[in-house]
Structure formats: C-alpha cells, structure tokens
Amino acid sequence: MKIFCIGRNYADHAKELNNPVPTEPLIFMKPPTALVVNNKPFYYPDFTQDLHYEGEIVLRVCKNGRSVQPEFAHRYYDAVAFGIDFTARDVQERLKQKGQPWEIAKAFDHSAPIGPWVPLEELPNPKDIHFQLKKNGQVVQDGHTRDLIFSFETLIVYISRYFTLQKSDLIFTGTPAGVGPVQIGDVLEGFIEGRPMLTCAIK
Ligand code: MG
Predict the structure, then answer these.
(1) What is the pLDDT of residues 42-97, one digit of tens each?
(2) Residue 185 Cα to ligand 1 middle (Å)
C-alpha cells in the first residue's frame, strides 16, 4: 500500500507559508508505518519543536491503474476520510533551505492519523466536500474541496503517470489555510460535512 500526499493544493495555504502556487501537483509519499487508526493518541516526537497539524481529505483508491485517462479518473476512488498530515515544520524548513527531500519532516512514524471511510455516495456533493479541523474545540481549518487547485481527478491522472495506482492506496489531497502548531495536551478533531470523523489527542 502506498500513501501519496499533495503539497500546496489550496492557494490560501500556499500563501500562508509564503510558497508559490504550484503549476503542477507537488507529490510526496509516506510509508504505511505513518498511519494511525482507531483514534489512537499521537506521541509528540523528540526531533521537533514545531509540530504542525494539516487537516486533509484523503481518497481511497479502489482499483489498479496506470496512465489513467481524465474521463475515467473518477472510477479510481470510492471513499474519503479525514486525515492529518503531521509535519515537523522546523525540520521541513531546514531541509527546504538546503533543497533536500522532506521525508524525515513528513513521513515519520505515526505522521498520518486517519478516520473511517465515507463512501462517495453518502456525501451530499462529492465535488465539494466541506471539512473542518478543531483544536481544543475551536475551528482552526475550514475547507471546501471546490477550492482545490488540482481536483481529485487531476491528481489520479497525474500520479498514475509516474506510479501504478493499486487498490487501497491512499491520497492525502492537501490542506487549506489555518495550519499551526500543537502542544502536548491538545486535542484535534476532524469533521466531514459536520460529522465527527477523527479524534487525535497529543500526548
Ligand atoms: Mg499536507
């Protein structure tokens, strides 16, 4: 199983970190050891002093495909979940300044908590999913997938040019504005269409 992640896929988030708005999708990956399921707690890693949450809609790939054509892309995912792309922002900044890969800042153990799957047919509008992240009960991120720079279908087409998509691969589709730090003792909660989907306590 592969976990693809998309960086800077909402213009308002690219701007808040002073990054350019991309002209093609920015892809990175996390290993399966990044996943956290069943609302298990997250233990603050010892290699960062600036751990950030990034709340994201995650796609579940439902069939194998290579070089998927745009008109068929919608057939390659069948459900979404709420996920957090935890990022050691201080480590990432250091790596970015040196032009080096991001893996240790993004793909470390337990950096990808994820909630249960919502089948596409249960969503009021799969083209415009409303999702929110609360930190200690306050909404800190409030996103709509209509604001994606690269749509779910565009991502399927793009990724499958380089990597064979396989059933049960995941795609973290990017985070809207409002990312920020967490501290030990904080509780993050993710919502899709107002439904609570994920709880993550920082220990
Ligand atoms: Mg992200």
Answers:
(1) 999 999 999 999 999 999 999 999 999 999 999 999 999 999 999 999 999 999 99
(2) 22
CA of 7 to the centre of ligand 1 (A): 5
Domains of the chain: 3-201 (3.90.850.10)
Residue where the block lists tokens 């708005």: 21
Cα-to-centroid distance, 54 and ligand 1 (Å): 5
The model carries a pTM of: 0.97
Alpha carbon of 147 to those of 5, 80, 150, 178: distances in Å?
A: 17, 17, 9, 14
Distance separating alpha carbons of residues 71 and 60, to the nearest angstrom? 18
pLDDT value for 16: 86
Ligand 1 centroid to residue 69 C-alpha, Å: 25
Whole-angstrom distance, CA of residue 90 vs CA of residue 179: 14
